[in-house]
Amino acid sequence: MTPSNETVPDGVHDGADDRRHSDVDDSDGDQARRRDVILAIDIGGTKFAAGLVTARGELIARSRVEVERDVGPESHYTSLAGLVTEMHARADDQEVRVRAVGVGSAGPVTRHLESVSPVNIAGWRDFPLRSRLAELTELAVYGDLDAKALALAEGWLGAAQGQPNFCAMTVSTGIGGGIVLDGELLDGESGNAGHIGHIIVEPGGRRCGCGAQGCLEAEASGLAIEAITGRPPTEPTYEIMQRTGTLVGRAAASICNGLDLTLVVVGGAVALGFGATFFHSAQVSLDENARLPYSRGARITPSRLADSGPLIGAGAVGWRGLRRAARGAS
Ligand SMILES: [Zn+2]
Asked: Which pTM was predicted?
């Protein structure tokens, strides 16, 4: 791995750590002895979560609230602000110092989360999330798409730890992804690189929210499964677990063939809930379709971070932001 590897948000804290250890009996050292953390926030379609993430990726506090239905933008913001206040109190209790805010948000979003319009939060359309959080916390706020944040977490501490080339996917209510190439998480023109849910896996298939037909998201997401089967994805048949795996494997093969990858990490409640049946079908489908010399043998593997992944990912976004700011690169 190269020293510039963006998937490892380490390094911001090194100098501070050294001072801390040598300052134990300094009466002025209260601040210096405090461990630094990122206040991590996950904006999901059905819940807001917040936590405190250390520079080693430990999640030392967490809390969540359900997203209310049919309320206005300020009501959503008020419940989020409540979580932020709670995390500041937890930071005081644990004698840690909040260095910055890191956010992973459901999309679509604009770059750095200047505005967010999560599909499943109807009350937030072009909501100025970054500036509102900066105003509330008086801290630097760094943000990215939730699936890209998860890719950072997987590369940092999860199933892609230390890998410079991989794709991370979430198969949940919707389907998202993040792509790390040559040690860098791809942003793209508008920051939306990695929207794997819109790879077409069934030509002429179901109409997708994006306007195309047969996208992975329209065929294999939790919402799609519910629409197709009339049952929630928590009550799947064997066939639907198999079919979902096959379609995800098909998309994974296109990614591996197109981007020269051999590792796809999959998280999200639907994929992890379907478990071995899903992953077996996905691997068979990937094996069938990734046959180029560089993509043959590609693996599809479950996330190792379970339900901590989104908050660790948001923490990773925060640490990455601080490191970039320290370099003057923003
Ligand atoms: Zn689509």
From this structure: 0.86
